[in-house]
Amino acid sequence: MDTLAQFFKKKKTYLCKVVKINPTYVILQTAGISGICHISEISDYKVNDIHDFFEINQSYHFMLLEFDESKSLYNFSYKRINPKLLKHHSRIIPSVEGFNNLFDNTMKKLYEDK
Fold first, then answer.
1. SS3 letters for 9-62?
2. Assign residue 57 a region: left if phi > 0, alpha if psi is -120 to 50, beta otherwise?
3. Less Cβ around it within 10 Å: N or C end of the chain?
4. What confidence tens digit (pLDDT) does each residue in 22-80 have?
5. Which among 79, 55, 85 has a CA at the least distance from the CA of 65?
6. What was the pLDDT predicted at 84?
7. DSSP assigned state of 84
8. What is the pLDDT of residue 1?
């Protein structure tokens, strides 16, 4: 593994410059390395045009997902640090009942464990 790969840590956020936009991924550069952000890591919602999210030569924050040693490629995510782009960013789902079910189930679980 090269020394740069050891310097960068998974699940950390890095400011990356967009250097090229392709139909299915974005090519990024940061601190001497290049990487990609695949369209599936931009948003959980349908992305019709990556240009709606990014501009070439602009910098954005991305999360490093992994370093693929076989391809010497850094894979980044944009959606994982932008919760509005995730379909299920919270386990609490609003309902007609409001928070009553959450409270009732929490209390029930507390007393079951004793």
1. CCCCEEEEEEEEECCCEEEEEECCEEEEEEHHHCCCCCCCCHHHCCCCCCEEEE
2. left
3. C
4. 999 999 999 888 999 999 999 989 999 999 999 999 999 999 999 888 888 899 999 99
5. 79
6. 82
7. G
8. 42
